[in-house]
Amino acid sequence: MASTTGSTWGLKDVSLVKTHGFIDGKWVDAKGGGKISVHNPATDEELGSIPEMGVEETKEAIEAAGKAFKTWGKTTAKERHDLLLKYHALMLENSEDLARIITLENGKSLTEAKEAVRTYGEHIPSQFPHIRNVVIKQPIGVSILTPWNFPSAMITRKLGAALAAGCTAVIKPPPETPFSALALVELARRAGIPDGVINVVTTQANVSDVGREMCENKTVRKVSFTGSTNVAKLLYGIASSTLKKVSLEAGGNAPFIVFDDADVLAAVEGAIASKFRGSGQTCVCANRIYVQSAVYADFASRLTEKVSQFKVGHGLHEDTTHGPLIHDKAIEKVTRHVEDAISKGAQLLIGGKRIEGPGSFFAPTVLSEVHPTSLVNDEETFGPLAAIVKFETEEEVVKMANSTDVGLAGYFYSRDVGRVWRVAEALEVGMVGCNTGMISQAVIPFGGVKESGLGREGSRHGIDEYLVTKFIAFGGI
Fold first, then answer.
1. Where is the Aldehyde dehydrogenase domain (predicted)?
2. Which of 39, 90, 153, 171 gets the highest tally of CB atoms within 10 A of its CB?
3. For residue 474, what is the DSSP state?
């Protein structure tokens, strides 16, 4: 067992490393005594362990959140605002340690690891002179299930809106990256957020049972989930048993289109930012790269040259640009996509294999002449593989871009104003990057269409996911 000491983590404040679940203001172990080992994907070193909790602990957490909701939901927006500002200040104060925790458990480079609103009702004019119609917004209550690729950002984007709205939360963090979630909870405790408002249940073997309890328990009125489309569908179906409000940010398969009138150098930079961020492990990552024939060779050559300059290694090393994949299953999927594409005629320009040694490292890869029917164009790779497909016409590429069941993000590069509007409107996605490969911001409505999910996170739209609309007719006026 690796100890949670300063020598292991290298933190300024080692007390941020928590190895227990958090229920009703108390750090707790699993009742059955089970443990989950957490490893650094860059070294295979065991960082520590967390409790293997189950349904019993989940029920306790939900009960605590339900009890706290009775008072937290009635606090004023100003009270919640003040506590959230304290919470935010503590996050900034501890940003270096939070980033280091992300790097150690997630693998991404240290540079990449660094990263309350008012609601309105309305008055509706009545056809009756003695009636006044008023619409108000009220908090609903919430559970949160989050992924491992952005362990802090995903929680704070959901939790910030939930707390601001007056909701309480039960968080089920991923077993791959639990320490980031637990550190954030510790900071929330220090900020003065009351007991029971935030609860954390850690699990791996019992994840199906825990997820089902969150979706079926009648105390929980809202479930927010980020993860794969298959799991999103499963949770959506279970949550329908009590008609819970649900927001789902599911899988993506983003097209990245380069037209022949594009700034090719800018398109290459955009592809690097979109495709290789987090070593390709982002839901808005460019997955299918379509390049018009006139600029195809130039783009492929320049992209390969840029990728050859990457420094793959441990995220804490200063010269590292790209870290490992989260585990060996991710390596297996990228390998399968590379081999499938090559079997269908693709040309390997760089990379294409696992990097030998400890850790789950895969060499950043570029393939050209990729056939449209290759697996990489059908499945989300979630790895450092840029597979380039040639196209001829705008109509053809829009059809290929939309030929998928999901629709989270899409990107394209063009300097033709008419084409910019046509393609932006034609892409069947929730978010479009036009002449940019970076779209994620706290102030935007983040989410997709089709089987990429329901609802939005971030911006003024994000808080609506944690509110219900109530109509009140005032008579006798």
1. 27-472
2. 171
3. E
Kindly state the DSSP code that residue 362 receives in the 8-state scheme.
B
Nearest-angstrom CA–CA distance, 410 and 14: 40
Nearest by Cα to 290 from 252, 254, 257, 267: 257
Taking residue 83's Cβ as centre, other Cβ atoms within 10 Å add up to 21
Buried b (16+ CB within 10 A) or exposed e, 36-68: bebbbbbeeeebbbbbbbbbebbbbbbbbbbeb
Q: Which CATH number fits the domain that encloses residue 66?
A: 3.40.605.10
How far apart are alpha carbons 425 and 422 in whole angstroms?
Answer: 5
Q: Say whether both 246 and 267 belong to one domain.
A: no
Reported as a single tens digit per residue, the pLDDT across 160-173 is 989 999 999 999 99
Domain-located, residue 1: no
Q: Per the residue annotation, which of 112, 249, 394, 451 is the catalytic one?
A: 249
Between CA 90 and CA 85 the distance in angstroms is 9
| Sign of CA pseudo-dihedral 42, 43, 48, 53 | positive
pLDDT (tens digit per residue) in 51-82? 999 999 999 999 999 999 999 999 999 999 99
User: Domain limits at 229?
Assistant: 7-250+452-472
Q: Are strands 222-226 and 449-450 parallel, antiparallel or unpaired?
A: unpaired
pLDDT, tens digit, for every residue of 361-390? 999 999 999 999 999 999 999 999 999 999
Q: Is the pTM of this model over 0.85?
A: yes
332 CB-near residues (< 8 Å, 6+ apart): none
Residue 249 bears catalytic tag: yes
Give the tokens for residue 397: 């590429």
**239 located within any domain:** yes
User: Domain count of the chain?
Assistant: 2
Radius of gyration, CA atoms only, the chain? 23
Contacts 24+ apart (CB under 8 A), 351-355: 351/307, 351/384, 351/385, 355/312
Please, which residues bridge with residue 37 across strands?
A: 49
